[in-house]
Amino acid sequence: MSKISLSYSGAVEVFEPMEKKLDETRVAFRNSLGKEWANKIGGQLCRDGTTYEIRSPADSDVLLGTFIDASEEAVGRAVRAARDASSSWERLGWRERVTLLRRVAGEIDARMAQLAWASVLEVGKSRVGALGEVLESIELIEYYCSQMDRNEGYTFPLSETSNELSINTQRPYGVFGIIAPFNFPIALSAGMLGAALVTGNSVVFKPSPGAGLSGSLLTEAFEAADLPKGVFNLVCGPNAGQRLVDAPGVDGIAFTGSHKAGMEINRRMKCGPFARPVIAEMGGKNPVYVTASADLPIATKAVLRSAFGLQGQVCTACSVAFVHEDLHDGFIGDLTSALQGLTFGDVSDRQTTDGPLINEAAYHRFRNAVEEAKAIGALVTGGDRLSGGIFERGYYVRPAIVTDLPERHRLFEEELFSPILAVRRFTSLDQALEYGNAAPLGLAAAFYGKDHSEIDLFLERAEAGVLAVNRATGATTGAWPGRQSFCGWKGSGLTGKGGLGPNFVPQFMREQSRTFQR
After folding, report:
1. Environment class of residue 244 by beta-carbon count within 10 Å: exposed (0-12), middle (13-18) or buried (19+)?
2. Which domains does the chain have, with CATH numbers?
3. Nearby residues of 43 by Cβ (< 8 Å), 6 or more positions away
4. Strand partners, 206
5. Residues 6+ apart with CB under 8 A from 271
6. What are phi and psi of 422, to 5 degrees?
7. Are strands 164-172 and 155-160 parallel, antiparallel or unpaired?
């Protein structure tokens, strides 16, 4: 297995053998595109629903495939199939489930190039980014399996007396709906699926509407590991997610996506005779604080990666920079110069670093924010759409840097999922933190500076679950299973526990104590 520990944004040389594999499979993968894909329910193909096409956001001429927006009846059938399989899946025992999930990780590894190409073409991600995502999906499953190993299936004695023995155990809820986002369609899907399955839940998997190809290919990897029929079910489509949330028999939802959608799912799941769990990561508005003692080249390079990687379409993207007045102009100048090193073009090519926005709605959101910033602040650079060649077949834009916005402007507080960075100068770190914390989301924040009292102030005051201090490989972005837990505070999460770390897996189970009379 290609198990590699690396920072998500570093160690490009590690990818060379896999890059060669992409070169070798490029033509064959392209030739395989365009076919019809059915949903999978109880191990059987299901075409009950409305057919729709998915085209690549990187090149609208490329038809990725035809998929089925699962009907309400089909989604209900998938939930029933998962329900029928849930008891036997729990009884199989955690050790056997760990063995099967590790087999899934091996199947994903065997499909490395295929899955990476799907991410490149479905998302418009760079080749290195796509390969890193597939590697992360393997590591996520392996890490969650290791958590089951380390905790002995989360069963242990509580107390023992001459009269009684008490045992604490964790048991699955039953059927989990897994609703995944577009930007990391392999890794985030595999992580939520792996945690739900290894803990004994059966699943109904609903990929992002535009990620039917990666969702179907990932489903093949799970099926190849010989999971019992009905344990894993796939329903695609733009309407399937709401149908899944509303379907009778769903015991819990794991979701990654927008705050608005996550809160609506939570409200719906809390209605009824009892509340059902929702494990959600709902984006962020992630500030960086560059203080007077910061190493400016390191901070600039880290912010470049965090703000504009994947065109800002990352939940931890750095979209706000608070920069001390002594470094403000230098930071703006260095970052503007660094932007010239980005290479836009065909994401299938090695030299391309940046691709398009995901769709027209994302483009209009970006343009509206740029025009608003120009009207009441200052546009330093970028903000325009690229033209000519492949740029005519996707929404390719130049990243934007804006300044001089008024206090509490929405660009400081509202997640845009766009390559636009709002920069604000400060003199007092305490006040900058107050402004940064005013955002209703709290996923990530970063700090650059050498003053230990200011570092302590940042760590004490920053209202986010993922903090970084003087990190060179990326300011707010870049997390790896077992290295950084990924927890959203405030509007970025629901449970106070995050993925990638030791507290994610237990959320898919409920506690039970067992007392035995001697």
Report:
1. buried
2. 27-57+69-282+495-517 (3.40.605.10), 286-482 (3.40.309.10)
3. 223, 229, 230
4. 179
5. none
6. -95, 120
7. antiparallel
SS3 419: coil
Greatest alpha-carbon span in the chain: 81
Q: What is the pLDDT of residues 50-77, one digit of tens each?
A: 999 999 999 999 999 999 999 999 999 9
Per-residue pLDDT tens digits for 333-368: 999 999 999 999 999 999 999 999 999 999 999 999
Distance CA 110, CA 119 (A): 16
Query: What is the Cα–Cα distance from 324 to 334, expressed in whole angstroms?
Result: 15
For residue 84 the two structure tokens come to 């029928």
- Three-state DSSP at 405 gives coil
Q: pTM higher than 0.90 for the full model?
A: yes
Residue 377 DSSP class? S
**Which phi and psi (to 5°) does residue 437 adopt?**
-75, -10
In one-letter notation, the amino acid at residue 142 is E
Residue-level pLDDT at 13? 57
Q: Report the alpha-carbon distance of residue 285 to residue 277 in Å, rounded.
A: 25
Label residues 316-335 b or e (16+ Cβ within 10 Å = b).
bbbbbbbbbeebbeebbebb
| Helices assigned H by DSSP within 387-428 | none
What are the structure tokens assigned to 74, written together? 């089909």
User: What does the alpha-carbon distance between residue 307 and residue 290 come to, in Å, rounded to a whole number?
Assistant: 14
Count CB neighbours of 167 within 10 A: 15
Which residues lie across from 164 on neighbouring strands? 517
Tens of pLDDT, residues 94-114: 999 999 999 999 999 999 999
Cβ-contact 186, 115 below 8 angstroms: yes
The answer for residues whose C-beta is within 8 angstroms of residue 438's C-beta and 6 or more apart is 408, 412, 413
Q: What is the distance between the alpha carbons of residues 192 and 252, in angstroms, rounded to a whole number?
A: 12
R_g (Cα) of the chain, nearest Å: 23
Q: Tell me if 397 sits within 8 A of 417, measured CB to CB.
A: no
Long-range contacts from 256-264, C-beta under 8 angstroms, 24+ separation: 256/179, 256/180, 256/181, 256/188, 256/192, 256/280, 256/281, 256/282, 256/315, 257/179, 257/181, 257/282, 257/283, 258/282, 258/283, 258/415, 259/283, 259/415, 259/440, 259/441, 259/491, 259/492, 262/494, 263/491
Q: Note whether 508 and 173 are within 8 A (CB).
A: yes
* Chain position carrying tokens 């903000």: 383
Give the separation between CA 69 and CA 206, rounded to whole angstroms: 10
